[in-house]
Amino acid sequence: EIVVDNKTGILTEPGSLEAFARSIKKLISDRAMLENFSRESRATFARAFSLERMIASYELLYERAISKFGY
Predict the structure, then answer these.
(1) pLDDT truncated to tens, each residue of the chain (71 aa)?
(2) d(CA 27, CA 16)
(3) Is residue 44 within 8 Å of 8, Cβ to Cβ?
(4) Which pLDDT score, from 0 to 100, does residue 51 have?
(5) What is the Cβ-side half-sphere exposure of residue 40, based on CA atoms within 13 angstroms?
């Protein structure tokens, strides 16, 4: 969910060591790509897990629990 292929990182086939190794080599050889992934990842994380968003998520969770259990 957090990793978007070729935007915030490189997704590889699960269990494929060859694909994983190719991706690592690509990142080592392309500093600009690595820096771009890093920037995009930080921005994505900040949006997904901002304090405001986390508070809203917990409020919704508590509201649902209260309405479900009748408190």
Answers:
(1) 779 999 999 999 999 999 999 999 999 999 999 999 999 999 999 988 899 999 999 999 999 999 998 76
(2) 17
(3) yes
(4) 94
(5) 15
Q: Find, among 8, 5, 6, the residue nearest to 44 by Cα.
A: 8
- Around Cβ 8, how many Cβ atoms within 10 Å? 19
**Placement of tokens 């771009």 in the chain:** 36
DSSP for 8-33 reads TB----TT-HHHHHHHHHHHHH-HHH
How far from the centroid of its chain's Cα atoms is residue 45's Cα? 6
- The pTM for the full model equals 0.69
- Whether residue 18 contacts residue 10, with contact meaning beta carbons closer than 8 Å, is answered with no
